[in-house]
Specification:
Number of strands: 16
Mean pLDDT: 91
Distance between the termini: 54 Å
Radius of gyration: 24 Å
Order of helices and strands: EHEHHEHEHEHEHHEHHHEEEEEEEHEHEH
Strand content: 15-25%
Low-confidence stretches: none
Number of helices: 14
CATH architecture of the largest domain: 2-Layer Sandwich
Largest sheet: 9 strands, mixed
Helix content: 25-40%
CATH class of the largest domain: Alpha Beta
Shape: globular
CATH topology of the largest domain: Dihydrodipicolinate Reductase, domain 2
């Protein structure tokens, strides 16, 4: 089954927000590249017909990336539509008829998680699941128990090899570039371990708030929204060992090992924050205790990383929007006074641009024996022709490539790490927008303070303008 390409794509939630913003642009891009030439069947309960779905697709593309006339015409020729209630067996009987001679469809559940069980059960009863794959959107549960229940639901109808849990972050080229940087360059291995690395910082910051999604966010929070999925995926790529074989399962084995080596987060190693004004957002409870910022410290108890603290922070209404990793090195055994030295560092920015920079010390100009810190920078801005994350992960799922998808054991290990602090009433501290979180974040800050991504971005921009 894994080597068979899907011969149809069914996406539930065809009239929804995710389809409008992400799926239709990804489908047009796949058609344009020649990666998609099978029936595309939208399913929804909207009282629509096929022409209305095509119009929805056109509206989507006009607002999110633009309409390519030739690709859009081809996309429309592939589109089909089934309108019906997800609880009605006739909806799935109609889907079975619409699949016609397709024997290996991919069913993409772009719908709220509470609908998964009902849809999956009907797919099985209607024979739509035979020879098929299922693609499910995060969140994969709300905690460990719900994640395990979701996995039980999926596994009643589909084998694990047929289940593709989408975290679109894994489809980002910059995230996968971490693995290439580590394992395609000989020099990296020499220093990428506890003997040379003093600490690692991972920052995922956004300079905006919840953007009208208050009701969703107030049930989720930063830890569930990005830490236990996006950031843990980045951390796994950073910390994993090279896989013994070049296949998706071997790679996913190594990622799971990283999470297994991480202890549950302790309350004293976590600070939660909430930006001032969050409780005034539509859909947010007046006395909400949901975090819009989280900073935490953890360690990976492995041969490579034991004793190296990992500092993570993520949040909204921070000074800049970026995802950045900074690995600080131990100071050298220099004859110079320690106070004159600043740790060397490796800085890897994943968004909005891709940057790899090495921080080092050198002699300051016009001064004898005075040192200055600087960076040697290489950067690559994303090409307009580069695949979008959704295009990449949908294409991979249809091809049966599991590399970009979370496995059952990975999901459950991620929840194991964060669940204890989620279930405790840990304090929440208020912070002003455009700051790096509440003052209490110092409790889980690296010695010497956090690296400032906003300052690094400003300095790099200034250097580029000067050149």
């Amino acid at each position: 089954m894994s080597s068979i390409h899907s011969d149809a794509l069914v996406f539930f939630g065809a009239t929804g927000d995710l389809a409008y913003k992400k799926i239709f642009p990804a489908l047009q891009a796949m058609v344009k590249r020649g990666h998609l030439d099978v029936p595309i069947i939208g399913v929804a309960k909207a009282g629509w017909n096929l022409n209305q779905l095509r119009q929805r697709a056109q509206d989507s593309l006009e607002k999110h990336g633009g309409v390519d006339p030739a690709a859009f015409e081809k996309l429309c020729s592939l589109l089909r539509y089934v309108d019906g209630d997800y609880q009605d067996p006739e909806t799935f009987a109609a889907l079975r008829r619409e699949l016609r001679d397709a024997h290996h469809p991919a069913h993409y559940l772009a719908i709220p998680p509470f609908l998964f069980e009902n849809v999956v059960q009907h797919l099985g009863k209607s024979n739509c699941a035979r020879g098929a794959r299922v693609i499910v959107e995060k969140p994969f549960g709300h905690d460990l128990a719900s994640a395990q229940q979701l996995n039980r639901v999926l596994l009643r109808t589909f084998d694990e090899a047929e289940i593709f849990r989408i975290d679109h972050y894994l489809g980002k080229r910059s995230v996968n570039n971490l693995v290439a940087f580590r394992f395609a360059n000989t020099f990296v291995e020499a220093f990428w371990n506890r003997n040379h690395i003093k600490s690692i910082e991972i920052t995922m910051s956004e300079d905006f708030g919840v953007r009208g999604r208050g009701a969703f966010y107030d049930q989720t929070g930063t830890i569930r929204d990005v830490v236990q999925n996006h950031i843990f995926q980045v951390l796994s790529n950073l910390a994993m060992e090279p896989s013994v074989r070049f296949d998706s399962e071997s790679t996913r084995d190594e990622k799971v090992k990283v999470l297994k080596a991480i202890a549950r987060i302790e309350e004293h190693n976590l600070v939660r924050g909430q930006f001032l004004g969050y409780r005034d957002e539509n859909g947010v409870a007046r006395e909400s205790q949901t975090e819009t910022f989280a900073a935490l410290k953890l360690e990976i108890n492995s041969w490579r990383w034991k004793g190296v603290p990992i500092y993570i922070r993520a949040g909204k209404c921070l000074p800049t929007t970026c995802t950045e990793i900074v690995a600080k090195f131990h100071k050298p055994p220099s004859l110079l006074p320690d106070s004159l030295l600043i740790e060397n560092h490796l800085r890897m920015r994943l968004s909005p641009d891709l940057t790899i920079a090495m921080g080092m010390m050198s002699l300051a100009p016009r001064e004898e024996l005075a040192l200055q810190a600087g960076e040697m920078v290489a950067t690559h801005c994303s090409s307009i022709d580069e695949m979008d994350a959704y295009e990449r992960v949908l294409g991979a799922a249809m091809a049966g490539d599991c590399t970009f998808f979370a496995r059952e054991d990975y999901v459950e290990e991620a929840w194991r790490i964060v669940e204890p602090v989620l279930k405790r009433n840990t304090p929440i501290y208020r912070y002003a927008p455009n700051t790096w979180g509440p003052d209490e974040v110092e409790r889980v800050s690296p010695r010497g303070g956090w690296h400032n991504p906003a300052a690094a971005q400003k300095a790099f921009k200034a250097a580029g303008e000067a050149a």
